Please model this.
Amino acid sequence: MTASGTGHIVYPFWFGGSSATMAACFTHPLDLVKVRLQTGKHGGSTSMIRMFPHIISVEGVRGVYSGLSAALMRQMTYSTVRFGTYEYLKLRYQPHSTRSNPNPEISSMTLIVISGLCGFTGGVVGNPADILNVRMQSDGAKPLESRKNYKNGLDGLVRMIREEGLRSTMSGVGPNGFRAFLMNASQLASYDIFKSLYLTKFGITDNLVTYLAALLSAALVATTVCSPIDVIKTRATGFWWIFRGWVPSFIRLGPQTACTLVLFERHKRLYRYLTNH
Model:
């Protein structure tokens, strides 16, 4: 299927959510460590290298995958919406080709604005799962009497609504939506911008190295923009804590961004193959 008048392929809306969900299966332990460092739930371990053996010694090997079900639920909601709407709006605002400019590119500012708005929308939709994700990841480091002990993401959602009310699912939606705005703008838009820059300005060929360079560049931008927001969201504290966990954030966002977008491109490639595009 192609967009009318553009010649661009319209991919299934859920591709981004599927890609991000698959990527989360590999990068969840890194995300868990990031949350523990930022919330201070580390039992004295103040570095990423020390955190992993600490979690395993206290909670067992399964401890590094605490809250995985909520993380997958979050990607199925948040990432499905942010990717799907972003890809749709990119086609919607793609300039039409002319004789003088047969291959027009959408402006960087347009990419940033629409990706940010799509991220905000996804952040609102995925807010309940985001709350559960943070709770379940930090639960194992809390005193026994303070733990939520959710069985899984779905159980956590039902209990949260039953025990705290429906409004609790939208707790912190403003900061989360703002963070999602920044994440999408600094990750997806910057990926497209860097990829175009490397291909057109620097004359680099269209290959895996180019994509990896764009991915890592986007991850660097996203980490720098979003790491302070993550800390403020998970721990209200002073200025010196703002960039706590930047390195774990980059170590997580690098693989997460790379896995997600590489899988997203694989989804697209397989779709083109199956539909003879």
The chain has one domain: 15-274.
